[in-house]
Amino acid sequence: MGSHFRSYIWDPVLILSQIVLMQCIYYSFLGLWLAGVDSLVQTNRSLDQIFSYEVLGFATMQGRLSMMAFILNSLTCALGLWFFIRRGKQCLDFTVTVHFFHMIGCWIYNAHFPAALSWWLVNVACMALMAVIGEYLCMRTELRAIPVNSGPKSNL
Fold this sequence. Notes:
Layout: H1 12-41, H2 48-51, H3 61-85, H4 88-110, H5 117-142
């Protein structure tokens, strides 16, 4: 039985807990970003800002600020991938999973499939940012040089 570098055992409990953790990071930080931009322009907070695809748009100030919050949230979630997933190969998987569950949530909240082009553009851009930045951070950590102890050697 030889040892393999980074051999992993199938662990569904770990995978499910990481999915739940990333969903919690996604929605809690999105809520904080939206609360921050709402406090700047003194608008009311509602679940529509998170789940209604009609709120995201280029025409209104609230729509542009909501888009900015989604973009900032993708950067925050990339840090979540770096801290909790720690594998560059899995960043795209978890990013797509988070956004897939968000799409399902929007579908349920609105009672119909998201059809607004601005919603799709924002979510695809956020997916790309989250995956690329998360993978970059994880790969930087994975490729860090392993320090070798170069202490005094014994003379035999």
